[in-house]
């Protein structure tokens, strides 16, 4: 399927590049009339270049450049500008090494400068050859090379982003597992304590006086089962526990705020006095949220007031810990700027996991340089919410996509501007060449055969239209040298091929002829 798509693209490219050639055959596009055998030969050469374009981009570029230079020599190069530009651009995109490409560009430029004048000495043709190589081969190749480098950078960047994403996933998963181990310890502390109380009460029942023997035996079995369950829970938690982790902080919110104030922090507490009972796991998560918010503020915004707000409702408790932007460094102090809490930090990742397993949610907001941490905890334990995937690189990925789109648009704009500039340059030269080589009919009528050359030269234009000989002209008088002048200043007029021929010999005008536009070779 991929092979078919590649072939289809190449066929479409070949058809598009052949359109100017076909148009020139049907409409005499820009006065370059192509015969059908020229159309067939040109289409075949373009097909060879397109076929070589993917596996041998530099030879494909050289083939189209040679075709275009040959067309310049015969005076029919207009339809081959797009071909050379397209294949040069693709060569820049597809070529890895620069030195061979530079050698190929230098070879075509040398051919334009040296070989074209040897085959056809015409100042206009030489200018078109050199300008065409620069504008339609060198410039497109440079644009393609820039595109190639950008694609390589983007490819390397995506590989790096994928590597960082994998590392982020691994680290986040490690934090989650560590937090699960801490939660397992909390479960042991809570559930183990309750099981111990149950075992104690059953033991009291077992030794109660007056209890029937069979009930005493059942109570003993129940006590043994609860004790075994407690021991099994302790064994499981010991397996899960990470000995490197410190013991969990058991201080309540008021004590955490008091210790922070004693350390010099400015902390405001709003709503924490409400006597609302949360599930034990949610209560511990709430304390961890407050502790994490105070720790972040002390680390990243020292001296900035911290505000803790509690919001209570019938079904949930919302706690918010916020602080403003860190103070700016004084003038002349070039020390390190206080850093804000990094997105996806490991403390926040573990805290997010703890709150999620309680059925709640945790959100962070950074605004105007400050930081806000908000946790929502349900009063009734529910199913844990789906864990979010790490998104630390999502913003960078979107930015990379925007840069790719921006570069693509820029490349298209540069290509259009370069094409417009090249077209304007060529058309401007053609217009200049036509306007400065026109001999008016009145001046042509005043010239007389036998007139001295200096007298005739007084009315002649500074430039000749072509260097000659002209196609389909009558025989040149023996020993004479001829000059060719245009009859119209518009190079795109259908009659712009009309010429006045003046032949001089021995310092005198020996022949004057009008060469019509429809002359046959």
Summarize it.
This protein is of the alpha+beta class and 521 residues long.
Structure description:
This protein is an alpha+beta fold and 521 residues long. Helices cover 58% and strands 11% of the residues. The chain contains 13 helices and eight strands. The strands form two sheets. The chain has a five-stranded mixed sheet with strand order 1-2-3-5-4. Strand 2 and strand 3 form a beta hairpin. The longest helix has 84 residues. The radius of gyration is 44 Å and the shape is rod-shaped. About 5% of the residues have low confidence.
Helix and strand arrangement:
Elements: H1 2-27, H2 36-52, H3 57-74, H4 81-94, H5 99-119, H6 123-206, H7 213-240, H8 253-262, E1 267-270, H9 280-300, E2 306-312, E3 316-323, H10 346-357, E4 361-367, E5 370-378, H11 394-435, H12 441-446, H13 453-457, E6 481-486, E7 499-505, E8 508-515
Parallel strand pairs: 1-2
Antiparallel strand pairs: 2-3, 3-5, 4-5, 6-7, 7-8
Question: Quick one: biggest sheet?
Answer: 5 strands, mixed
Element-by-element helix/strand order: HHHHHHHHEHEEHEEHHHEEE
Could you give the distance between the termini? 51 Å
> Any idea what the shape is?
rod-shaped
- The low-pLDDT segments are 243-248, 331-345, 389-393
Approximate strand percentage: 5-15%
Report the count of strand segments: 8
Mean pLDDT: 77
Radius of gyration: 44 Å
Strand order of the largest sheet: 1-2-3-5-4
Q: What structural class results from the helix and strand content? A: alpha+beta
The number of helices is 13
- Helical proportion? 55-70%
């Amino acid at each position: 399927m991929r092979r078919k798509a590649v072939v289809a693209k190449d066929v479409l490219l070949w058809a598009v590049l052949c359109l100017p050639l076909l148009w020139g055959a049907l409409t005499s596009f820009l006065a370059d009339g192509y015969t059908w055998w020229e159309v067939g030969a040109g289409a075949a050469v373009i097909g060879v270049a397109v076929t070589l374009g993917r596996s041998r981009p530099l030879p494909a570029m050289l083939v189209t450049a040679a075709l275009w230079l040959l067309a310049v020599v015969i005076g029919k190069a207009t339809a081959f500008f797009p071909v050379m530009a397209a294949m040069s651009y693709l060569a820049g995109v597809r070529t890895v090494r620069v030195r061979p490409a530079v050698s190929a560009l230098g070879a075509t430029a040398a051919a334009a400068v040296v070989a074209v004048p040897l085959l056809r000495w015409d100042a206009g043709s030489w200018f078109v050859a050199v300008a065409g190589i620069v504008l339609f081969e060198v410039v497109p190749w440079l644009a393609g090379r820039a595109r190639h480098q950008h694609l390589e950078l983007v490819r390397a960047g995506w590989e790096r982003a994928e590597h960082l994403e994998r590392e982020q996933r691994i680290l986040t998963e490690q934090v989650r597992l560590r937090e699960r181990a801490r939660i397992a310890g909390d479960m042991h502390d809570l559930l183990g304590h309750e099981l111990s109380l149950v075992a104690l009460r059953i033991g009291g029942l077992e030794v109660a006086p007056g209890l029937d023997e069979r009930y005493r035996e059942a109570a003993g079995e129940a006590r043994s089962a609860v004790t075994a369950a407690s021991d099994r829970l302790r064994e499981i938690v010991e397996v899960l526990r990470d000995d490197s982790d410190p013991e969990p902080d058991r201080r309540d919110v008021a004590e955490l705020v008091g210790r922070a104030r004693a350390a010099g922090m400015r902390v405001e507490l709003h709503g924490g006095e409400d006597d609302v009972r949360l599930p034990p796991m949610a209560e511990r998560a709430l304390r961890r949220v407050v502790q994490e918010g105070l720790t972040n503020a002390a680390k990243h915004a020292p001296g900035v007031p911290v505000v803790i707000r509690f919001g209570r409702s019938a079904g949930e408790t919302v706690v918010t810990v916020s602080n403003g932007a860190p103070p700016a460094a004084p003038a002349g102090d070039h020390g390190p700027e206080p850093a804000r809490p990094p997105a996806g930090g490991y403390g926040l990742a573990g805290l997010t996991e703890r709150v999620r397993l309680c059925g709640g949610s945790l959100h962070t907001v950074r605004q105007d340089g400050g930081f806000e941490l908000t946790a929502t905890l349900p009063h009734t334990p529910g199913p844990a919410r789906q864990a979010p995937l790490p998104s630390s690189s999502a913003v960078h990925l979107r930015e990379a996509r925007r840069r790719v789109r921006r570069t693509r648009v820029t490349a298209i704009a540069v290509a259009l501007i370069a094409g417009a500039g090249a077209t304007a340059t060529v058309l401007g030269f053609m217009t200049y060449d036509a306007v400065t080589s026109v001999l008016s009919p009145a001046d042509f009528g005043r010239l007389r055969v036998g007139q001295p050359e200096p007298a005739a030269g007084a009315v002649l234009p500074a430039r000749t239209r072509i260097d000659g000989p002209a196609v389909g002209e009558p025989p040149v008088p023996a020993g004479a040298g001829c000059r060719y002048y245009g009859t119209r200043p518009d190079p795109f007029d259908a009659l712009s091929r009309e010429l006045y021929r003046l032949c001089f010999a021995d310092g005198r005008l020996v022949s004057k002829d009008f060469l019509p536009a429809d002359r046959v070779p």
